[in-house]
Amino acid sequence: MTLSRATRYRGLILLIVINFMMYAGFFMVIPLVSVHYVQTLGFAAVTVGMALALRQLVQQGVSVGGGVLSDRFGGRGLITAGVLVRAAGFASLAFATTPPLLFFAMLLSALGGALFEAPSRAGIAALTTEDERARAFSINGVGGGLGMVIGPFVGSLLLDFGFSTVALAAAACFALIGAISLLLPPIETATDRSRLGFGLGLALRDWPFLIFTALLMGFWFMWVQLTISLPLAGERLANAGDAVRWIYGVNAGMTVALQLPVIGFMERWLRPLSILILGIALMALGLGMVALADSFPFLIGCVVVFTIGTLLATPAQQSVTAALADPRALGSYFGVNALALAVGGGLGNFSGGLLVDLANALQAPALPWIAFAYIGLASAIGLMILGNYLQQRRATAHLVGAQQR
């Protein structure tokens, strides 16, 4: 189905609004999970880390199915169903006072995310041209950043009325998204909808894309520390509510103010893959610096460096994913790419809680942050090697084509 330019832009605007609300609802409650369950209910940090890891692993792992279904049936219905399931998951979190109930709530919210994540990202790629794509992903990142500003702020205010109130408010936000998603135009993420699983086969045979997805795990491993390790580090140096507010306020405020100008400037000089590598290296530096943080202002300085890295890496990794994907099956490619977040983010959440507990036991507070930095640097180096290979392959293909002509 060919959509008019006006319809494409209307759909794109709605997807950006929906993304903003998703981030607001998600970050309204998730940053407070580690603090609430560890500090208030007395759960071990590793238990909470495992629950967060389960959500990450299930959501991104099952997102492959969401992408395949999007290619076959279109993205709009998948997005609507997903946000409503996520709403039910967050509502159940309001009553989760034991580890099994916490794991159930995280599982339900993960299944909702698995339905809407790949279709919404592939939808942006489907509704834009190649020239429009990087800017669209950047604007989408600004919307997400604004949601990250508002979400933790609202969550920290509602926390005065209890964690259950925060969880129910986040659930209401996702229910509202479900109503808004009905206004989306049809989102076709594949040009061949005749065979279920056709696009998945394409993605699983695309070795450069699979290697890129594996290397991207390091990016997500670091990124999820924003939801577990950084809030716990902030809680150690300041009041828990103030720590969450400042960490997410700085991160999201910089995203809103600087995302577009920073990406616009960098695109004049570097290709998306080079921007991604630089961003990951800066994220590793920011997390590594936390090993030296002996005051809350110093920690905020680390968050600033980390955030500059995310400003570069987040839209760049989406642009590189779209560039490497076969246009016949964008949903499936974005679904497979979500495995990077499934494994990298899941390991990041689990390892974050485990390393924090281990560092406390060994009285070695620098341990988690040094480990995070090494993982990020390994990812950046691997992407550099992949980039050189892809460049050589393109040069060889161009030379062969020229000789054939």
Automatic annotation (TrEMBL):
Keywords associated with the record: Cell membrane, Membrane, Transmembrane, Transmembrane helix, Transport
Listed Pfam families: MFS_1
Localisation: Cell membrane
Primary subcellular site in the record, as a coarse category: membrane
Membrane topology note: Multi-pass membrane protein
Residue span(s) of domain Major facilitator superfamily (MFS) profile: 12-394
Gene Ontology, cellular component aspect: plasma membrane
Domain of life of the source: Bacteria
CDD domains from the UniProt entry: MFS_MdtH_MDR_like
GO MF entries: transmembrane transporter activity
Keyword Ribosomal protein among UniProt keywords: no
InterPro entries, per the entry: MFS, MFS_dom, MFS_trans_sf, MFS_Transporters
Transmembrane segments: 12-30, 101-118, 139-159, 165-187, 207-226, 246-266, 273-292, 298-317, 329-347, 367-390
Keyword Transmembrane attributed: yes
Stated name of the protein: MFS transporter
Native source organism of the sequence: Chloroflexus islandicus
